[in-house]
Structures are given as structure tokens and as C-alpha cells.
Specification:
alpha+beta; single chain; 12 helices; 6-stranded antiparallel β-sheet; 17 strands; globular
Length: 484
């Protein structure tokens, strides 16, 4: 981003505080102090496109629990760099934070909806979806096929060494009935160890120790070989998953996610899900994300041993089951109350309204205890009141593929009068995470969120919630302000 004079920053900040938007002003403060520009205050004034409810009142998207975009942005900012706008996916920033939505009593979804009014006749609306958690000891057995990148680029510290450690730790945490296969790939792929019961831990640990760096990155051959093994050893009573561990920097074979997924489609059709785990300072974010989004899976990114162990030891074993396949959400806005709306994020997950009940159209795979959050910016009609929107979530049973739906409505009377004094801490954290992502992605503010809000409120909320992740968000925003 090109630095702006500090005086102009002050003018923009004043406008944001007064009107949450508007055109820039060339007025300068008297005797301005020469200070470094504040990136968070230099937001562009052009607002994101809004959809008019008179012509387009239905918003439909596939659910997404990916968090790789936030984790990779965190790595870059901590290294003193800003992510490219195309690497920032707002929904993945929001979904990186814990929620407190109530859980359903059954294996479906609980739907939550709330919101807050913001200046200028607008509001921020939050849609929250929650599945029921389960005790990891009660889960079904798992068939895990690890597809491990051992190409030359994985030789950097924090790549293959991190992967080996995480796999060793996970093998020790798996339960009787679980099975593991390992497929390393570089210029070509090989089946290092076929599907093996976890009871044979010594053989699995020995295979992990044999993973060594060599050659180029033929991710296509790695996934094909991995899916072939997962398909060959498929168990209907188990969760069958391919876990891709790579920096995503494919340079041999096909590097197109569409071509790669087409090659494994026959095997993936056997209800084999994909988890892509990204590592490395330089990371092929787009390829790994598209593979996960279009391969019935999820994408995460880890940059430290602590993060990898958390992902493999705490998160993965507890969520090996699925609660829902091809899950989608549809929000229908009432044009009598809502004039325009804009969904923050989910650009890669958008669906046409008619695809909502088309069960051949891919959605998102959601595990036990997962929450999914979507934020909308809406403009309200002056003086209008009543039902604001209806939210419906549709999914398929993981085993029977039988579809199910549940619906929830939001009334304008339930909107909080003020974003910062009348909403829950978790709502405010979601808004700040989205505002931070939108700044990194578009350099544009959210209504009701000033640069000062971004600078100060995460620290206050970290103290209120005692949540280390919110403390980290506050640190990232502080670091971003120093990057001009």
C-alpha cells in the first residue's frame, strides 16, 4: 500500500468517525506532526457492491469451516509482510475464532441470527450455525491416508520437520480401530506404507522417519496415489479421509485444481473427504484452498510446532466424524425491511438460488462441534419494521445422503441499538475480525467500525474473554499499523 500523509489520514479518520464513509477531504490539520502513516486509517472510500432486494433478495452459499487464510495472513504479518488481497478470505478470518452458539440436541444444525444497527441506517447481521459436539472416544474409526510433500521446497525449517513431528504425535493419539497409510510425493509418488492398523505404531513411526526431501513437486501424482489407496482400503463403517500436507507449490504434473480433482473424482465419490494442511513461508494458498473447497474438505495452515500439534492432536481426532455433507445456507431478505445487502466473504462459495436444493451441487462438509459464521452488511428501509430475513440451512446425512433442512427468522425489533454497547463480546470479535479482513482485502471500512475501533477494541475484548486468540488478533492489527 502506498503511504499517505498523516494529515490526510486524520481527515479520513474524522470522516469515518462522523459518517462511517464518504469522500476524501484535502483539509489538513494545522502544524501537522510528521508521523508514520497508519495503514488501518487509510481505507479507500469506495463501498463494496450491495445487492438490491427488489431484484435479488436471496443469498445462497456453501458452508465453509476453512481457516487457512487467517493463519497464513498471521504468518506473513508476523514476518513483517502484508498478505496479497487475493489471499484474504473474510469468512476464514471470522471462522478462525471461537463462538458460543447453543448446540442442537440432534445431529443437525442449530441456527442463530442476531445483529446490530450502525450509523447511516445500516446494520450488521450475523448468521451462526452450530453442530453438536461429540466425545472423541465415541467417534467411529478412521482410515487416514497421509499424502506428504517431500519435494525440495519442503526442506526449509518449519515444513517437513514440522509435518513429521505432527504425524508422530497424531499416531500416538489415535485409537484402536483407526488405520493409517502414508504416500510421500516429489517428482513422483509412492505408497510408502499401505493402510495399516494403528496398533502397529512402531511400523508407522518408522515410515514417518523415512520421509526425506528430494525432487520437484508433483502434487497431482501424490493425490492420485493417495486417493487410490484410500479407495482400495475404504471402510463403510469408518471415516475415510485423505490428508494432504504440502506448501502447495506444485511445479510438475498438472498444477490445476480442476484437473487434479477430475483425476481423483472416481475414488473421491466413495465418500472420501479431503483435509489440506498448508505449511511454509511461501505457500500456494489458491491451489490448496480450491482443492479443499471443491474436494469435499477443509483447508488449514500451520506455521509452528504448537499450531501443528493443536491441529493434529486436539482438533483432528475430535472431528474425524462428519455431521453433515454438502451443507449450504440460504438467506432470504424481506425487501419491505431491507433495501440492500452484502455478504462479507464467501466469494468462492457462492451458489445460485436454485442450487440450494440441488443435492448434486457441492456444499461444505461439517464435523461435530463445528460453528460456521456469516456476516452481512445491510441497509434498512427508513421506518420499516418486521421480519428482516429468513435463514435456512440444508445438508445431507453423512451416511444415507438423506437431505434435511432447518429454518430460523430474524426480526428487525431484535437488532441491538448499538454495536459496541449492546452486543455480546463474541459478536464484536466477529465484526472486528471481518473488518480487519476487509481492510486487508479491499482497504475499505465496515459501517460502525472506525480505525480507532480496530486499534483498541480487540485488546479490551481479549481481556474480557481471556481468549489468547483475541490477544493475537490485537497484536496482528498493531503490527499491521506499523507496516506502511
Amino acid at each position: 500500500m502506498r503511504a499517505r500523509p498523516y494529515a490526510l489520514v486524520l481527515a479520513i479518520s474524522a470522516l469515518l468517525l462522523a459518517a462511517c464513509g464518504g469522500s476524501s477531504d484535502n483539509t489538513t490539520a494545522p502544524n501537522p506532526v510528521q508521523r508514520p502513516p497508519d495503514p488501518l486509517a487509510g481505507a479507500a472510500q469506495e463501498q463494496p457492491a450491495q445487492r438490491d432486494t427488489l431484484t435479488d433478495q436471496v443469498s445462497t452459499f456453501a458452508l465453509d469451516v476453512d481457516t487457512a487464510s487467517y493463519a497464513y495472513a498471521r504468518r506473513l504479518i508476523q514476518d513483517g509482510r502484508l498478505p496479497e488481497p487475493g489471499q484474504v478470505r473474510t469468512e476464514e478470518f471470522v471462522n478462525a475464532f471461537a463462538q458460543d452458539y447453543p448446540q442442537p440436541a440432534d445431529n443437525g444444525f442449530a441456527v442463530h441470527a442476531d445483529g446490530a444497527r450502525t450509523p447511516g441506517g445500516e446494520a450488521l447481521i450475523r448468521i451462526g450455525l452450530q453442530t453438536r459436539a461429540t466425545d472423541s472416544s465415541a467417534r467411529r474409526p478412521a482410515n487416514l491416508t497421509f499424502v506428504v510433500d517431500v519435494s525440495g521446497s519442503m526442506n526449509e525449517p518449519g515444513r517437513l520437520d514440522l509435518v513429521r513431528d505432527a504425524m508422530h504425535t497424531l499416531v500416538d493419539q489415535l485409537m484402536p480401530g483407526d488405520q493409517v497409510a502414508i504416500v510421500p510425493f516429489s517428482t513422483t509418488a509412492e505408497l510408502l506404507i499401505p493402510m495399516t492398523p494403528v496398533a502397529e505404531r512402531s511400523g508407522l513411526h518408522a515410515a514417518i522417519d523415512r520421509l526425506a526431501v528430494d525432487g520437484s513437486t508433483n502434487l497431482e501424482d501424490g493425490l492420485i496415489t493417495g486417493y487410490q489407496e484410500a479407495s482400495r482400503s475404504f471402510r463403510s463403517v469408518a471415516t475415510n479421509r485423505v490428508i494432504l500436507l504440502s506448501d502447495g507449490l506444485a511445479n510438475t504434473g498438472s498444477t490445476s485444481w480442476q484437473t487434479i480433482l477430475d483425476r481423483v473424482a472416481e475414488h473421491a465419490a466413495k465418500q472420501i473427504t479431503l483435509l489440506s494442511v498448508g505449511v511454509g513461508r511461501d505457500y500456494g494458498d489458491d491451489l490448496m484452498e480450491q482443492l479443499a473447497d471443491n474436494g469435499d474438505g477443509a483447508a488449514i495452515y500451520v506455521s509452528s510446532l504448537e499450531q501443528a500439534r493443536k491441529a493434529f492432536v486436539e482438533q483432528l481426532p475430535a472431528t474425524l466424524d462428519l455431521r453433515a455433507r454438502d451443507a449450504k445456507a440460504q438467506v432470504v431478505f424481506n425487501p419491505g425491511v431491507v433495501e440492500t445487502y452484502h455478504l462479507l466473504g464467501y466469494e468462492n462459495r457462492a451458489l445460485a438460488p436454485e442450487e440450494f436444493r440441488d443435492d448434486s451441487r457441492d456444499g461444505g462438509e461439517i464435523g461435530p462441534g463445528h460453528s460456521v459464521t456469516a456476516l452481512y452488511r445491510v441497509r434498512l428501509r427508513t421506518g420499516a419494521a418486521g421480519q428482516l430475513a429468513t435463514v435456512t440451512v440444508r445438508w445431507q446425512d453423512p451416511d444415507t445422503r438423506r437431505p434435511a433442512e432447518t429454518t430460523h427468522s430474524l426480526d428487525s425489533a431484535t437488532l441491538a441499538a448499538d454495536l459496541w454497547t449492546a452486543t455480546s463480546p463474541r459478536f464484536q470479535i466477529d465484526v472486528l475480525a471481518a473488518a480487519f479482513a476487509e481492510y486487508l482485502r479491499t482497504r475499505q471500512p465496515l459501517p460502525g467500525v472506525t480505525p480507532d475501533d480496530l486499534a483498541s477494541r480487540p485488546t479490551r475484548l481479549a481481556a474480557t474473554t481471556e481468549d489468547a486468540a483475541v490477544t493475537e488478533l490485537a497484536d496482528l492489527i498493531t503490527r499491521t499499523r506499523a507496516l506502511g
